[in-house]
Amino acid sequence: MITLKDLTVKEVLDNPKAYAVLEELAPKLVKMPVLKLLTKKNCGEIFDRVVNKKLLPKETADEIARRIEVLYN
């Protein structure tokens, strides 16, 4: 079973359905230019940082993770 922590940022950004989930739930995150520089990082690490910096509520991050994991499993 694939979790969000197993996926790289590039894998999620390159998947149109996963990208749509991000656009719907975290449009500000998708528009951040720095996200494009972090394509080799895993999503788990990025989401942990974004939640810790309070750029995204934990509940929203959990919902994004849940929806993306459904797409990959």
What does it look like?
This protein is mostly helical and 73 residues long. The chain has one domain. Helices cover 68% and strands 0% of the residues. The chain has helices spanning 9-14, 16-25, 27-30, 33-37, 43-52, 58-72. Helix 2 runs antiparallel to helix 6. The model has no long low-confidence stretch (mean pLDDT 90).
List the helices and strands and how they pair.
Elements: H1 9-14, H2 16-25, H3 27-30, H4 33-37, H5 43-52, H6 58-72
Which key features would you list for this structure?
68% helix; single chain; mainly alpha; 73 residues
* Alpha-carbon distance between the two ends: 6 Å
Shape: globular
As residue ranges, the low-confidence spans are none
N-to-C series of helices and strands: HHHHHH
Per DSSP, what share of the residues sits in E-state strands of 2 or more residues? under 5%
Question: What count of helical segments does DSSP give?
Answer: 6
Assign a percent range to the helix content: 55-70%
Overall mean pLDDT: 90
Rg calculated over all Cα atoms: 11 Å
Overall number of domains: 1
**Biggest beta sheet summary:** none
Total DSSP E strands: 0
Q: Find the structural class using helix and strand composition.
A: mainly alpha
Give the structure's gist in a few sentences.
With 73 residues, the protein is mainly alpha-helical.
